[in-house]
Amino acid sequence: MTVNGVPFPVENKEQLNKERKKANLHEFSQEEINNIPEPDRIPEIEAGDNGYTAWRKKVGWL
């Protein structure tokens, strides 16, 4: 999932490409990985995306 074209925060950036490879997804460049926000920014990111929040409520995630 992305937020404004930047991947959503992940817990372990060092393992990201390894996990993506297991799922047959393309690897991110180091620059792309460096641009991924830290997990502590998730509440701020979610608060800025009303459509995503509405969708999560609709499907019962919230």
Number of strands: 2
Distance between the termini: 18 Å
How large is the radius of gyration?
A: 13 Å
Let me know the largest β-sheet. Answer: 2 strands, antiparallel
How does this model look, in words?
- The structure is a single chain.
- The protein has helices spanning 16-22, 30-34, 42-47, 50-58; strands spanning 2-3, 6-7.
- It is mostly helical.
- The chain has a two-stranded antiparallel sheet with strand order 1-2.
- β1 (2-3) and β2 form a beta hairpin.
- The model has no long low-confidence stretch (mean pLDDT 89).
Descriptive tags:
62 residues; mainly alpha; two-stranded antiparallel ribbon; 6% strand
Layout: helices, strands, pairs:
Layout: E1 2-3, E2 6-7, H1 16-22, H2 30-34, H3 42-47, H4 50-58
Antiparallel strand pairs: 1-2
